[in-house]
Design brief:
Elements lengths: L7 E10 L3 H13 L4 E4 L15 E2 L8 H8 L1 H25 L6 E8 L3 H5 L1 H12 L4 E3 L1 H6 L10 E9 L2 H14 L3 E3 L6 E5 L2 E5 L3 E10 L17 E11 L4 H7 L6 E4 L5 E5 L5 E6 L6 H18 L8 E12 L5 E4 L6 E5 L5 H16 L4
Parallel strand pairs: 1-2, 1-10, 2-7, 4-12, 10-17
Antiparallel strand pairs: 3-6, 4-6, 5-6, 8-9, 9-10, 11-14, 11-15, 12-13, 13-14, 16-17
Helix pairs in contact: 1-7, 1-10, 2-3, 3-10
Length: about 375
Amino acid sequence: MTCPPLEGERTADVVVIGAGYAGLNCAMQLAREHQREVVVLDAQWPGWGASGRNGGFCCIGGGKLSYTAVAKRWGQAATKSYAQTQRNAVNYVEQLLEQEGIDASISGRGELCLAHSRRAAAGFAAEAKELGDLHGVELQHWSAAQVRERGAVAQGCSEGLYNPIGFGLNPGRYVTGLAEKCVQAGVTLLGKSAALGVKPEQGRWRISTANGSVLAQKLVITTNGYSSDNLPQWLAGRYLPILSSIIVTRPLRDSEYAEQGFSCHTMTYDSRSLLHYFRRLPDGRFMFGTRGGLKASEAASLRVRARAQRDFARMFPAWVGVEQTHFWSGLVCMTSTLQPFVGPIPECANAYAAFGWHGNGVAMASHGGHLLADIVAGKT
């Protein structure tokens, strides 16, 4: 979805920088439920960043800090609340899609983690109990034979841990539908309007672009891995962009899926820290993603693509000769705390942020943006 650029001077109650899941959900809630005049600026257009080019995993997650570490830092009650928020995030997106009539091509229920080592498999029993207790669901520990029977074979992986929470979706359809609902709610969406300057001005915020500026009572930053250290300066050192890359094949025949032993539609990933993630898409294509890469130069991108293709061939040898019709990369966002941030920016009056989804933001970024709108509007 394209939007006109900012031209000249505008005023608003709230200006949101970043038209991804977090920014759009925040803007829609502010406009609809709190009757705020909202302007959303994006350097390109809605969904151009990670919200439009991810793997479509709507599932629990959003942080990289283990639940054990969260409990040590914040206590068991807060850990339970955090886990419930993750589940609420998945429910929020599902209800949003249904209520708004957004066709995001939902497919596959739950998510499956495949053990890439014996050590990882040995930890599945404890992980199943921990996640089950925290999220209030029963996880299934699949043996290697059950993984084969259920059509989730990836070379080099053995046992699996199935979590029933979550579903797959088409990220582009979701973010485009969300942008359209924002416009219907009265939100002003402006593309090709990169924020070049953010500064306080007589109790308000002025955001400058190449061709104009917006003067607003409140400022919201939802740029995630596409942020800038000086917009505002508080962001410096608090986030780390990392590349995530995706290969998509041509539509595969059922016989080709059978040959590899991977026929399920379940969102799947392996147990590596820099994991691989993959799923069968509704139209028969196969999507394969990889994490890693701190540089986005042309040479570095070529190396990342070559590594992704090597990993794909190693894990799915039956499809070595299959045409790969699409390849793209985007920036996920780590934080110094290894947890998402949603709330007021401590050093800036009337400024707020939602970012740091750690490569798993379809659900948490959406829900985080929705929650942030209430905070911006003054609700506790």
